[in-house]
Amino acid sequence: MTKVDVLPLEHEDFRDLYAGHQVRVLRLCRLMLTDADEAEEVAQEVFLKAFRFYRSGRRPDAWDKWLVTVAVNACRDRLRSSWWKRWRGRTEPFDEFRDGERIHHSAEDAASQRETQRMLWKVFGRLSARQREIFALRHFEGWSTEEVALHLGLSQGSVKQHLFRAVRELRKGIGKAL
Amino acid sequence: MKRCLTDQSLLQCYTGDGTASDLIHLEDCVPCAARYKALEADMALITQSLAAPPPARRSAPAFLRWRVALSAAAMAAAFVIGWSLRGASMSQIGPHSKPIASAGHSAPVQLSAAEPTASTSALYAAYVQDAFGSDSCSEANDPLDAGCP
Ligand SMILES: [Zn+2]
C-alpha cells in the first residue's frame, strides 16, 4: 500500500461514491433477493461496510467491482439464513407494485405493464439463486461471461447454460403475461 | 448454409459470446434474424421489467401475524386476569388469600407501533451523521476498520 492510499479522507468523496453506486447496488440486491425491503436492508449493510473500508484508508482497485462483490456476498448470506428462508416460504410473491419508477401512458397500458412485471418477477423469483446471480451480473452489471465464471468459480460453459435456462424461463413468463 | 441456430446459440450471439460462424449465419438467414429480433425485444422487456422494484409481497409473514395475534391475546388475558384478581382481592379478607402478584406471570406484552420505513438516503444520512458525528471508533473489533486507533 502506498502513502497515497492512506491519505486523510474527504467525506464528500464517500457521498459521491454512494450517489454513484447506490442505485446499482440496490438493484442488484433486489435481483438477488427478489424482495424490495430486504434489498434495501442489505444495500444499507453494503454501504456501511464500504464506509468502514473507506474510513480505514484502504482502496479497492475498482469500487464498482468491490461493491458488487460485497453486495453479492451479503445477499448470499441473507439467502442462506434460515430465518429468511422461513420468511420467504410464508409469503406469496407478488401482489401489488409500489408506485413510482413507471410511466403509464394509459390505464390499460399500465395494467398490462404491471401484469408483465408481476409475471416476470414471479418467474425470476423461481429461478435458482445462482441463475438470478448470473443473470444480474451478466445483464445488469455488464460482466462478461468470463468474469462471471471466474467470480463464481464455474466454467464459462456452465455460466452460459445457467444464463440460457434463466432467459428461457423468463421468455416463457412473457408469453404467459401477454 | 449451416443449420439454423439453436436458442442457446442465438442468446450467445446476443450476449456477445457467439461464434464467428453463428454470427455469419445470423447475417444470412432471415428466419434466424427474425428470431434474433424477437429475442432482442424480449430481453429489452425483461430487463426493463426487472429494473423496476419487485412488487410487494402478498401479506405479512404468517409468523408475524401469529406473533401479533399472540401478543394481543396475552395482553387481553393479562388484563382479564388482573381485573378479576383485583376484584377478588378487594372482596377477600384473610391470611390465606393469594397475593395478587402471583397473577403477574403473564406480563402485558407491549405491541410496538409499526415504524415507518425510512428511505435509503435518509438511512444513509443517519449513519453518516452518526459516523462523523463522533470521533470515537465504535467498531473497534471490526477487522475492516483498520483506520480506527
Ligand atoms: Zn437460420
Report on this structure.
The complex is a heterodimer of chains A (178) and B (149). Chain A is mainly alpha-helical. Helix content of chain A is 74%, strand content 0%. Chain A has eight helices and no strands. Chain A has helices at residues 11-33, 36-55, 63-80, 82-89, 107-126, 129-140, 145-152, 156-177. In chain A, helix 2 packs across helix 3 (63-80). The relative contact order of chain A is 0.10. Among the domains of chain B are: 7-51, no CATH class; 99-149, no CATH class. Chain B is 56% helix and 0% strand. Chain B is built from five helices and no strands. Chain B has helices at residues 7-15, 20-28, 30-51, 62-91, 120-133. In chain B, helix 2 (20-28) packs across helix 3 (30-51). The interface between A and B is large, with 61 and 44 residues. The complex binds zinc ion (ZN). Zinc ion (ZN) binds next to helix 3 of chain B.
Q: Which keywords apply here?
A:
heterodimer, A: 178 residues, mainly alpha, Rna Polymerase Sigma Factor, Chain: A, Arc Repressor Mutant, subunit A, 8 helices, globular, disordered N terminus, B: 56% helix, disordered C terminus
User: What is the approximate shape of chain B?
Assistant: rod-shaped
What's the CATH H-level superfamily name of the largest domain in chain A?
Answer: RNA polymerase sigma factor, region 2, helix turn helix motif
Q: What is the residue-averaged pLDDT of chain A?
A: 84
Q: How helical, in percent, are the residues of chain A? A: over 70%
- The number of domains of chain A: 2
Q: Kindly report the greatest chain-chain contact and the residue count on each side.
A: A-B, 61 and 44 residues
Question: What Rg of chain A do the Cα atoms give?
Answer: 18 Å
